[in-house]
Structure formats: structure tokens, C-alpha cells
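Q: Joint fold for the lines below.
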Amino acid sequence: MLKIKDLHASIEDKEILKGINLEVKAGEVHAIMGPNGSGKSTLASVLAGREDYEVTAGSAEFGGKDLLEMAAEERAREGVFLAFQYPIEIPGVSTTNFMKTALNQVREHKGLDPLDAVSFLKLMKEKMQLVEIDQSLLSRSLNEGFSGGEKKRNEIFQMAMLEPKLSILDETDSGLDIDALKIVANGVNTLKNKDNATIVVTHYQRLLDYIVPDFVHVLYKGRIVKSGTKDLALELEEKGYDWIKEEVDATI
Amino acid sequence: MTEVAERSKILEGLNTRFSSLNNSSDFHAIRQKAFDFINEKGLPHPKNEEYKFTNVTRILEKQFDISKKSGHAVGKSDVDALVFEGLDVIKLVFINGEFSLELSDIEETKGLKISSIGKAIESNDPQFLALFGEATKNNNDEFAALNTALVEDGSFITVADNSIIEKPIALFFINDATNDKNYTNSRNLISIGKNSQVDFLELFSTKGNNDSFTNIVTEILVDENAHGNYYKIQNNNDNASHIGTTQIHQKRSSVFSTYTFTLNGGTVRNNLNIAVDGEGCESHMYGLYVVNGKTHVDNHTAADHIRPHSMSNELYKGILEDNARGVFNGKVYVRQAAQKTNAFQSNKNILLSDTSTVNTKPQLEIWADDVKCSHGCTTGQLDEDALFYLRARGLSKTSARAMLLYAFAIEVIESVKLEPLKNYLEHIISERLHKDF
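A: Joint structure:
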């Protein structure tokens, strides 16, 4: 589904990603872990099409198409979804209205008719239950005045509405209490099937108790320096990142 | 030297126009006084602080042949085109400044008296003569004086005490500049009686592409405990310049809201002055300008708190593209006697191009010591992070942009209480944000 080869990206002439190689197949869950500043969020942003980053080398293919050639909205319509680490507050735009416009533009791209008001509402109600979000929250301005947990649940709600092929969760667990974490993880697990894939970017192992990864990768200094199974995450939890840093720094 | 020559030529033109006026009515003395003021003071110079960013006198350099009445071909269909869906109003239509009884639709309404200014002047209407200039007596603006000196026509409306006027009163000012340049001085004088309630709309539009200039003054006297809303919608052609002064005088416990929507025009200058001259008054000032091309829109507002326990609230927002220019100057005066005043002011702008500009200046002058006043202004570009967030969900760049701009504008539109107008503005702004911007 996703093939990343030797991906380099920089922001304001500072190179952050220094050759990422990663392949994600349908049905898989990949966790990307790493210390602060290792490039985790940059990778998520580059995949989602944030224009602040310049891709200087390498390639990323999504479903056989050149992902890097596509504008952010094309990627979303093709089925890439980024759950933001810090969802943006937008006064004056309600989640409902926003989702209706987004969903219909995605549907149009797929050659489907727009959803009428009734079907949209039905779909929304169904997905709301999944993340235990209240309708009144969704009629309010997007993320404005939402608590951290509400913002993250809203991200997963949007993900549920758009049914992406590839979901990238950028530190969706940060700042969540255990109840909110369970709700978010449950949402993600329910949406998981053999045709879609998930990349979980996280700093903490805790989330991986609930969203169990098939692969764990450690990102450090802009490269994936170690890959393994979920046991790697447990090892990191126990031993921290220092041993990996030492290993890598010794070889440079 | 050339500027001096130009200015003296303008004054000469104004003199010719003034001399041609019928001087037999009692009103002529009022005209004469205002014209003397102009002759003495001259027209505003760009060095004048009040007109620093808007060279209004330049408008008059367009050599309007002001001694001549320009012809027009405005018919019922032109007026109907301006009446948006659901708008059920008492309709007064002015074409090139002149009242058109034929195109107007004035329903007999209890407590409401409507006459044209032209008729009031001609008939030496004593009530008109008594009320005229009451609200503007402390106004020293040159263009307001010019209007007084040269006023041709307009509306004189009185609402009796204890009258609730159900239908809003809409004043349509249509200028036809198809064949000739045209310059009008229109005037409205409105008096709202005690405990009464009424809504007004002023709608401006132009036909044809010659230069046109409207110098309009609206005086509104709001008596005790009266309520009213005043909506001004400016959607003129690129060559239409507009100087509008709205002068409001509020008495005790009255509540009055003004709304100024500027959608297009050449040079637009709006002066809004409110004397909050009673205890327990509420004054709301809302403004929204969504302009592109070379449109220059300048809003000068002043809320003068004279007595205690009143509040004023101001919210002006602007979206500017291309070479459009915006000016906002908001004055709040709180006199020494006006203790316990609450005054809030906010001006926010979004610039969509590198060549659009905004000059914004809040100006608070407070002599009382027990008041709550705040002001704030922001000018910036569209939030890139927000744009990315929307696009990352599949929205095209155009619709993401339109959605954010609309969200920015909606705060002002939502304050509109007149439902058909609100729908119309929602529609026109959203359409425009998708297309032109």
C-alpha cells in the first residue's frame, strides 16, 4: 500500500528526514517510536502533504501512485488520513459542516453522489457512538474550546467518517487519560480491517497495549534505526532510548 | 501649484452649483451657513488627520458637471433586482439623488410619516426645519457641511411615540452613470419617538461605468427607550465613490444598532458618529468589508459617551484582496460624567494579497475613572495551519479558503437580526469568496 524509499525532507534548509525506508501493507499496523526531535511528526506531516516541508530526495508510493506529487487534498481523497498531534481550532466552522463538505468532496473524487442530509446524519450518528462523542460538540466551532481528549476523539471521529485506507495517528495518545485512551484505541481497532493500514506515531508504549502493532520502528536522527515486533516497544519502555542512541551514535 | 489650481477649480464648481439653487425657501439660510463654512475652511486636505489615508477631495477632481441634472433609465426591474428574497419593506427609491414616487412603495402605516426632503424644503415644513441639523450640530466635517449646502433630496421620516413599525423601511439609492458622470448630495432625516421601534436599510447601487459620487448624510434622532437597527449595504461599481455620514443621537435607555456592509465601490468613506447622550443606552456598531480590485474603504467611527451607565460595542471585520485598501479609525470618548460606561471595540482584517493594505487605529479618550473599555485590532493573512487541516481532510484549496473566510465573516453577519438580509448576505459573501477571491 505504502512504499517509502530513501525519503529525505527538510524545513528551512534543515534536513530532518535523512533517508526513510518503510513499507506498509494492507491489514498491517506499524508503530513508529523515537525520542523527541527524531523526525516522527515530520514524517507524518510529509506523508500528509504539508507544504512547509521540502522533499529533497527519495520517493513515496501510495497504492501504486506517486504520493509526493499529490496535493494534500488529493492524498486525503485517495485515502490518506492524518490524525493531527495538535488539531487546529477553527472558530466559525462546525465539525458537522466541515465533515459534510469534506466527505462529499472525497465522494466526488471516487465518483460517488454526494450524501443527502438524512444519510449524512445517519452516518454521523453511527460514527459518533464509536468514539463516544456528543452531537452538541460537533455542532460547535471545530475544536474551539475542546479539551485535549475531545480534540483527539474528534480526530478519530473524522477518520471514521472518511474511512481512509491509510491512517497516520500522530501522537494521538499524548495527553490522554486512560479512559480517553481506551475510547480512542477502541475506535481505531474497530475501524481496522484487512484492506486498510495504520501507522501509529507515538512516544509512549502505553498506547500499543491497546492498539497492537505488527511492526515497531524506531526513528532516530531522521532514520529508522531499528525495526522489530511489539516486543521492541516493551524493551524501549523498559530501557528507554539511550541504548539505541548509543548504538547508532557509535556507528556514525 | 497644480493642486491649488485644482482645488480652486473644485470650489468654483461648487459655487456655481450653490448659486443655481432656489433660494426662496427658509431652508436656504441653513444652506448658506454651511456653504460659508466650506468657503472658510476649504475642503479636506490629505494632511488633515481625519483624512490622512483617504484623499477624498481627489474625488471631486473628476470634474463633475454639477450644474446639470443627469438623465437616467432606471426602471422598476432595476429596483426589483435589488430587492432580495423575502424582503418585505416599505420602499423609497431615489434615482440620481431624486425621489421617485413611481418606483417607491409607501404603505400607509400608523405612527409613521414619510416625506421627501425635497418636498419638506419646498413646503417650509416646520417640523423638518426644527429637527434638521440637531444630530449634526457638533459635526465639523467638511463633506457633511457640503451636503447641507447642496442637499437635493432624500427622506424625512418620523416615527411617533409608542409606535412599532413592523415593516423595515428600505431606502434605495441608485445612480445611473451610463451616459454621464453624476454627483449627488442626498440626505435622510429620521426621528424615532419614545418607546418606538423601527428598522432601516440603506442600499446603494450604480448603473453604468462613468464616474459617480454620492455624498450622503443620514441624521437619526433616537428618543427615550426607542429601539432600532440601521443597515447600510454598499455594492457600487468600481467608479462610484461614496462619502457617507451617519450621525446618531441617542437618548436615555435607547438601543440602536448600525451595520455597514461594503461589498464594492471606488473610494468609500463612511463616517459613523454616535452621541450616547442618555443613561442606560446601548449602541452596537457592526461592519464588514469584503473588497478586491482597487476599492478603498475607510470606516471612521466615533462613539461619544456623554452620560453614565451606557454601553457601546463595536465589531468591524475586513477581507481584502488585490490592491484593495482598508482604513479603520474607531474613536471612543468617555466624558467625565459618563461613569460606569462599558465600551468595547474590535477590528480584524485578513489580507489575501501582498498588495492589499489596512491602516487601523483605535482611539480611546477617557476622562471618567470608573469605566470598562477595551479595544483590539488584528491584521493578518489566512491561517496556513487551518488551511492545511481542512485540505488534509479532502477539501480543495478553494473551498478550504472560502470556508475559513466565511467563518471569519460570519461573526458579523450573524449579528444581523433581519432574516432575509442575513440570508442575502450569507449567500452573496459565500458566493464571492468562492469566485472572486
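Q: Anything notable?
A: The radius of gyration of chain B is 21 Å. Chain B is about 25% helix and 40% strand.
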